[in-house]
């Protein structure tokens, strides 16, 4: 699951394209299928969104939650591709993007009535 935070006036106009860019990177690096897009957008009022100095109102936070198993090199490749593609396709400067990846063990995920470690029909590999 991915949660994206940004200032409402900047996030709303680009959120569909932003979702496409994020998912494209997830597909390219992690092998995620087209139908596994789980994105949540949290548009915030400027008065409620504090961010570090040196950033613009385009500052965007992307939190990626995933099952543990991907190699550090794979996670780094995802982060770098996101920076590159967000800048190329949406003109979001890398200084205005913050990306975090949080991993949980498969038994800590619950979906389709079971835990992640019980699932046997994933169409992608979490051990890359």
From TrEMBL:
InterPro entries from the UniProt entry: Tauto_MSAD, Tautomerase/MIF_sf
Pfam family, one: Tautomerase_2
Chain ranges passing through the membrane: none
Protein's name according to its UniProt entry: Tautomerase family protein
Organism of this sequence: Stutzerimonas stutzeri
């Amino acid at each position: 699951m991915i949660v994206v935070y940004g200032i409402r006036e900047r996030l709303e106009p680009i959120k569909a394209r932003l979702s496409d860019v994020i998912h494209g990177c997830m597909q390219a690096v992690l092998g995620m299928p087209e139908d596994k897009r789980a994105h949540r957008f949290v548009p915030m009022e400027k008065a409620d969104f504090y961010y570090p100095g040196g950033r613009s109102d385009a500052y965007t936070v992307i939190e990626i939650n995933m099952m543990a198993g991907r190699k550090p090199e794979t996670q780094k490749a995802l982060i770098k591709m996101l920076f590159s593609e967000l800048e190329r396709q949406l003109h979001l400067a890398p200084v205005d993007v913050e990306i975090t990846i949080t991993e949980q063990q498969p038994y800590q995920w619950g979906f389709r009535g079971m835990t992640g470690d019980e699932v046997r029909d994933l169409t992608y590999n979490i051990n890359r």
